[in-house]
Amino acid sequence: MENTALIDSGLVVLAILGGWFFSDFLYRTRETALKRLPLLLMSFAGLWCLVNWITHTIAVLVVNIKAMLAGTFVYSYHFYSLLLMGVGFILLSLFQLSQIRLLSRGENAYKALRQVSWLIIALSLPIFPINPIGLLPVISSVLILVTAAATRKQWTVAKQEIEITEPIALA
Fold first, then answer.
1. Whole-angstrom Cα Rg for the chain
2. 7, 25, 39, 171 — which has fewest CB within 10 A?
3. Among residues 91, 144, 90, which one has the least CA distance to residue 117?
4. Which residue range forms the structural domain that includes residue 97?
5. Is residue 138 part of a domain?
6. What's the structural domain count of the chain?
7. Is residue 128 included in any domain, yes or no?
8. pLDDT (tens digit per residue) in 90-126
């Protein structure tokens, strides 16, 4: 593809802006004491991975549609596996973002977030020797895991504050 450096830079900017808006929304409507910067880091990492897998899937489709229009398209396992990999990782990234959202809401979503992040690492790490961009989901999942583990004390404080500040219903 042409201008891959320009496209990759645009994707990083898109992920930063998306992470900024997503984390700002979650921060303003939150029920936890999770700080803004950790929430931004987790949102950015999740969106960075998601946006790259969406563009991967679009690129696979565009290349094969061009081949179909030229009359040289052959349905192969390579096409199918690339498309399946893109859709599978999109779904995993969406689930990861939903767990980040739940975590920011004070839900007990750390275990599911940890499991999906480790699953993404396990599935994408073998891609690295074939294509160095395969390290991107690993880096984003490690960033999410480290940030979530570092802010773990904030969740317990937030849950205690929520329980204390709930209004008492009078009979």
1. 19
2. 171
3. 144
4. 4-158
5. yes
6. 1
7. yes
8. 999 999 999 988 888 778 888 999 999 999 999 999 9
Lowest-pLDDT choice from 51-60, 68-77, 105-114, 147-156 = 147-156
Tell whether 70 is covered by a domain: yes
Whether the model clears a pTM of 0.85, i.e. scores above it, the answer is: no
Q: Is the dihedral of CA 29, 98, 16, 18 positive or negative?
A: negative
8 A C-beta contact, residue 33 and residue 161? yes
